[in-house]
């Protein structure tokens, strides 16, 4: 497991560098947007974009991890199609080529023959990342790679990545929007049970260097497997005054239903992965979402980290039903191995019942009891 975690962390660091490069080079960034259409479009947004950065990051992680662990190559899944259409109407299959020169030549076709941009990206794709992390090196957990699969969200909150501002003031530590909500998410799950076992969240835009004005990344990881729980994070203490983080467009009915528990401690932020990170970091005790607007690639990695810290993520609607029926233990958690029946496109992998991400069992129980007490709100 140490070798797999180290490989995934190195891939996430390379992904973070690509995300930074694409966002910092304005001339490059303006070339990297293509509107999603049809079944790929997220119903939550009037405009939803697939960026070349998304596709590149996804394919780099598949390539680098698949090269080291060939048995995983066909089980590394992502949000994006690896087909990209350039300004000339040509469809190009994005992939990592054997050499940096070959990759640059392929990228030129996408970037309207822009050699400078292609060379910058190819260099980032083929760079060697040397990861030094004693905590990872010393880990002794064994997980068979024959029974697992990987979900990738190359850039969570792509809309914020495209439009986000680097300097957004946080409210009590939670950033409402901006580049901080754009994360690289990697989740590993058991192919048989669907349970998350390993998660990585990389913050490409964690901190800006005041000297170079370049962003520095930061990663977090967690493992929850057969009773073993390890994480780069420490379990945050319970708050005396609990708080919840919500989507900015969450239903007013949910906000009203949660008021008896949280009072005015309702916070709003962009990016599903970022809101889950806020819970893992102890900036919020829960993230509640009443709609099916997140996907398996959004939640798998954060879910594993939360499990490692004593929390988790449950299905919002199924858990409400279970609680009303008197089942207050082992609420239905999200799983990651089966598509939703009767759905097509990206919706096959949506968390259709909504979700509750929580940092402790005590707080999950408080959330469920408060929601059920709201009677017919849901």
Automatic annotation (TrEMBL):
This protein's pathway: Signal transduction; phosphatidylinositol signaling pathway
Superkingdom of source: Eukaryota
Q: Which GO terms describe its biological process?
A: phosphatidylinositol phosphate biosynthetic process
- Top-level enzyme category: hydrolase
Give the required cofactors: Mg(2+)
Enzyme Commission number(s): 3.1.3.57
Database matches in SUPFAM superfamilies:
Carbohydrate phosphatase
Which key words are in the record?
Hydrolase, Lithium, Magnesium, Metal-binding, Phosphoprotein
GO MF annotations in UniProt? inositol-1,4-bisphosphate 1-phosphatase activity; metal ion binding
Kindly give the Pfam families that the UniProt entry links to this protein: Inositol_P (PF00459)
Q: Which residues does Mg(2+) bind? A: 79, 153, 155-156, 298
Task: Enumerate the InterPro entries for this protein.
Answer: CysQ/Inositol_MonoPase, Inositol_monoP_metal-BS, Inositol_monophosphatase-like, Inositol_monophosphatase_CS, INPP1_dom_1
The UniProt family comment states: Belongs to the inositol monophosphatase superfamily.
The annotated subunit structure for this chain is: Monomer.
Name of the protein: Inositol polyphosphate 1-phosphatase
What species does this protein belong to?
Anolis carolinensis (Green anole)
